[in-house]
Amino acid sequence: MSEELSHISLQAEEAMTKAIAHLESELTRIRAGRANPNMFDGLVVDYYGSPTPVSQVGNITVTDARTLIIQPWEKNMLQPIERSIIAANLGVTPQNDGIIIRIFLPPLTEERRKEIVKRVQGEGEHSKVAIRNIRRDAIEHIKKLKKDGLSEDLAKDAEEEIQEMTNRHIALVDKHLAQKEKEVMSV
Fold first, then answer.
1. Strands 67-72 and 50-53
2. Most buried by CB count within 10 Å: which residue of 18, 37, 93, 135?
3. Backbone angles phi and psi of 104, in degrees to 5
4. pLDDT tens-digit map of 119-177
């Protein structure tokens, strides 16, 4: 029975760690005022009939704090990249000069910063909900084992361990959110 408990605990730990990793990747995509090539991570372009990430059809470089340049490996990819950036509604307008695409990031207004902070908090809430769902599933497994003959003491200890794990991961989510909010609100 203790093997099953450790298996449940290990699975919950892995799933919660994945939820944190997902939050980190989502937060890197959210623009915080500085040019960051990661804001194009989720962006795909039609490359000869198949959806391909922009980072696989050209180089994305940062020239200064407010300018990004996308240099496609094939010139005929300029238009599809430009269209996908516009369709993604990132709040930027690409400028195509026939060789490269320049993206100037305008300074964020106070109102836009607050909108971004709300989005950051929304992502954090999604992660917290995912972590709590993982906790619920793990505790349900423990209760099933308890019905099958697991002692109450072991079940209670396992539930406390799962709750402590949940608290650690929720605190980690809060830490990531605080860092991102500070980054977004700094001018």
1. unpaired
2. 135
3. -95, 125
4. 889 999 999 999 999 999 999 998 898 888 888 888 899 899 999 999 999 999 999 99
CATH numbers and ranges of domains, the chain: 2-29+109-185 (1.10.132.20), 37-104 (3.30.1360.40)
Q: Buried b vs exposed e over 91-123: b needs ≥16 C-beta within 10 Å? A: ebebeeeeebbebebeebeeeebeebbebbeeb
Residue spans of beta strands (DSSP E) within the chain: 44-47, 50-53, 58-64, 67-72, 94-96, 101-104
In the β-sheet with 67-72, what is the strand arrangement from edge to edge? 58-64, 67-72, 101-104, 94-96
Mean pLDDT (the chain) is 86
Q: Is 149 left (phi over 0), alpha (psi -120 to 50) or beta?
A: left
- Residue 59: strand, helix, or coil: strand
Higher pLDDT, 112 or 173: 173
